[in-house]
Amino acid sequence: MKKITVIIPALNEEEAIQSVIQKSYHHPDVDDVIVVDDNSVDNTVELAKEAGASVITSARKGKGISMREGLLMAKNELIVYLDADIKTYPKDIIERLVKPLKEGPFDFVKSYFERQAGRVTELVAKPLLSLLSPQLSHFQQPLSGIIAGKRTLLMQVDFENDYGVDIGLLVDMYNSGAKISEVNIGTVENKMKPWRELGKMAKEVSAAILKRTVLRENTRKVLREELV
Description:
By secondary structure, the chain is of the alpha/beta class. The protein has one domain (4-227): Spore Coat Polysaccharide Biosynthesis Protein SpsA, Chain A, CATH 3.90.550. 44% of the residues lie in helices and 16% in strands. It contains eight helices and seven strands; from the N terminus they run E-H-E-H-E-H-E-H-E-H-E-H-H-E-H. It has helices at residues 17-25, 44-50, 63-73, 93-103, 119-132, 151-154, 165-175, 195-227; strands at residues 4-10, 30-37, 54-57, 78-81, 108-112, 147-150, 180-184. Strand 1, helix 1 (17-25) and strand 2 (30-37) form a beta-alpha-beta unit. It is globular and about 45 Å long. The N and C termini lie far apart (50 Å). 41% of the residues are buried. Mean pLDDT is 90; it is low at 219-224.
C-alpha cells in the first residue's frame, strides 16, 4: 500500500492544529505529517509537535512558499494538503482525497464542501474560468486549498506565493495533461476572509488565471509560427 504525506501550512492556528493532525493520522497509510509554520507567535509549533507532526519553519512568509517547502520535505509519492484552521474535517478526510489517486486514473484531486461558495469564487474565479478556461468552469470550488496529488507532478508546477496559489495549481495541472478529479468532503467550516482582504484576493486570483492564459496562448503562437 502506498504511504501518504500530509502537508499543513500554518500561521497562528493553535486552536485547530492538533485536530487536523489527529485526523491525518486516522488514515492507516499516513506516516508523514509535515506542518510548515509561517513564523507563528502562538503555540502552533509546540502543539503540532505534541500531536506527532514534523515541523519546519518556512524560509519566507507566504502560503505558496510553505506548500512548496513541505513538498520538498515529503517522503511519499501521494501528497495531501490540508488547511490548518478547520476543526470540522470528517474523520475520513484523507481517504476521500486519496481514493481517486489510488483507485482511479487520476493525478490530482480538488475538493469541494457543503458551504456557500466564497464571494471571490463566484464573482471572480468562476467568471474568469468560464471565459478563459471553460474546460475548468465546472469545478465547484476552484479556490479550495484542500487537495491531493502525486508528488512527481506537483514538483513540476508553479506555486504562487499569494491567494492565487490554489487556482494556479488547478490550471497548471490541467495544462500539464494531468487527470483531475473533484470530490465532496462533506461539511467543513473555515475562517471567512474579512472584507478588507477580498480586493487583494480577487486581484491575485485574477492574475494567476490571466498569467497562465497568456503563457498558454504565447506557447500556441510560437508553435504555430514554427509550423509555418
